[in-house]
Write a structure and sequence with these properties.
This protein is mainly beta and 122 residues long. The chain is built from no helices and eleven strands. Strands 2, 4, 5, 6, 9, 10 and 11 form a seven-stranded mixed sheet that branches. A four-stranded antiparallel sheet has the order 1-3-8-7, with no helix packed on it. The relative contact order is 0.31.
């Protein structure tokens, strides 16, 4: 049984930082692409960042480039999202996702976590 468990969300002031974590179980983590998506009220779920297992390449949405960093620790089955210089528009429910290879749109995810709320106050 695959489980993705997120943690690290919370309330932070604009300009602040948070680090999200996602621990995966039930998958061969070293051969699984991991990513972070977010969904704000009334909006569609969108990719924030992802890190492939093959070559370790990363992708970032334009809106977070230069502010967010995705990393993975295969020994701990954990993927992280370091979020700096947070803005009120980053407020959303953040989901961890896993896929066998490609992961840029929600339909490509094989597994999802339950999400962790990030709220950025102005």
């Amino acid at each position: 049984q695959v489980q993705l468990v997120e943690s690290g969300g919370g309330l932070v002031q604009a300009g602040g930082s948070l680090r999200l974590s996602c621990v995966a179980s039930g998958v061969t983590f070293s051969r699984t692409t991991m990513g972070w998506f977010r969904q704000a009220p009334g909006k569609e779920r969108e990719i924030v960042a992802r890190a492939t297992w093959l070559g370790g390449s990363t992708y970032y949405a334009d809106s977070v480039k230069g502010r967010f960093t995705i990393s993975r620790d295969n020994a701990k089955n954990t993927v992280y999202l370091q979020m700096d210089s947070l803005k009120p528009e980053d407020t959303a429910l953040y989901y961890c996702a896993a896929a066998r290879l490609a992961l840029l749109v929600p339909a490509q995810a094989d597994y999802w976590g339950r999400g962790t709320q990030v709220t950025v106050s102005s």
